[in-house]
Amino acid sequence: MVIIDRYIRNALLIGVFITLLVLLPLIGFLLLGDELDHVGIGRYTLIDAFVIIGLSMPNYAHKIFPIAALIGCLLGLGGLANNSELNAMRALGISISRILWSILKAGLIAALFAVILGEVITPWSEEKIRTLRSELLSDSDVSTTPYGFWVRDGSTFINIRDILPDKRLKDIYIYEFDIKKRLTHSTHAVSAIYSEPLKAWSLANVSRSTFNRINRFKIKVSHFPKLNWPTLIDSDTLSLLLIDPHKLPLWKLQSYIEFMETNGLDATNYLVIFWSKIATPIVILVMMALSVPLLFGNMRKVHTGQRIFFGIIIGISFYILDSISSQLAVVFGMPPLISAFLPSLICFSGLLFGLRYQSL
User: Cα separations (Å) of 3 from 8, 16, 102, 104?
Assistant: First the structure.
């Protein structure tokens, strides 16, 4: 049975990765049009456009992995069915449930790869994209470091540790120097958000230290619940530095959720994304298992093109369902956990129905 497991696993994983290799260049071609609009702005060149498209591929691979898993399984199992290899397995006494178990074993490998894509590779590549865009397209004096973003405004240096997707700044440090390059003020704010009516940044939970060097060196520390600051970072640069929460790793999402809940902000959208990312490996397993009822009804009567078509239809239906489900939590107050797992539950119900209907 180990040989059968390995044979099925290789066929399925090859099918999944071939599907990714076909779909990702198509996505890259579609992205090229948007990136070409930036060519010529600042120091952005055609080579930079291709680099950024290449760096964005891990994110899109993670996004389409469930549909790639389904189509890849249909291709892999379909190839075995066309060569009557599945019939031979059945003739040897291997049950469909045992074949399904082999598929799930292969699915665990695919799901692990998807987790690595979403939690390690995508955050790294998106951080690279964010840094490149800010350096190439922005006129502002912004530096990206492991400790956040540094902005210079005359003799003032501003360190923004993080930028939330809703354009809220988190952990801001402001250092002011005099003409002799001596530190005069040091300000820390827990968060900041731009106020349109005031045309200024509204800092929250502010601690401000003043360094007085007249006669004797003294430090005066003041605390303010709110403090307005005219300039921290311009809107164009801020837009370049923003990152989609779907591209964040789980630990970063958890950090944002805790920050927002601590500050009395609505974290529903982040909670839905958090639980959706946890549900992704389960979705991949269910999608791969769905290939069993789709194939074992008429293994030799269905052409490869039809299998791919069925896979695409199911994949598109899943993504539409996933989009609708995520809005249920935001608009109607459905618990984020249920909202995130609802598409998986519906797909799993479809799998059980298919297995029961086909008497598998």
Answer: 9, 20, 10, 15
Highest mean pLDDT among 45-59, 184-198, 203-217, 344-358: 45-59
Q: Is 331 exposed, middle or buried (0-12, 13-18, 19+ CB in 10 A)?
A: exposed
The 3-state secondary structure of 279-317, one letter per residue:
HHHHHHHHHHHHHHHHHCCCCCCCCHHHHHHHHHHHHHH
What Cα–Cα distance (Å) separates residue 290 from each residue in 58, 92, 248? 25, 23, 29
Which residue bears the tokens 């298919």?
354
SS (H, E, C) 167-228: CCEEEEEEEEECCCCCEEEEEEEEEEEEECCCCEEEEEEEEEEEEECCCCCEEEEEEEEEEE
pLDDT digits (tens, 9 = 90+) for 316-330: 888 888 888 888 877
Q: What value does the mean pLDDT take over residues 225-238?
A: 78
Please check whether residue 170 is in contact with residue 162, taking contact to mean a CB–CB distance below 8 angstroms: yes
Give residue-wise pLDDT tens across range 3-51: 788 888 888 999 999 999 999 999 999 999 888 888 888 788 899 899 9
- Positive/negative CA dihedral, 87, 92, 96, 100: negative
The helix or strand, by DSSP H or E, that contains position 166, with its residue range, turns out to be none
Cα distances (angstroms) measured from residue 173 to each of 130, 131, 148, 206: 21, 20, 10, 10
CB-count exposure of residue 221 (10 Å: 0-12, 13-18, 19+): exposed
The backbone torsions φ and ψ at residue 192, rounded to the nearest 5 degrees and listed phi first, read: -155, 145
Sign for the pseudo-dihedral over CA of 139, 144, 148, 151:
negative
Query: Residue 352 and residue 242: Cα distance in Å, rounded?
Result: 41
Helix 304-332 with 268-295: angle, nearest 10 deg: 150
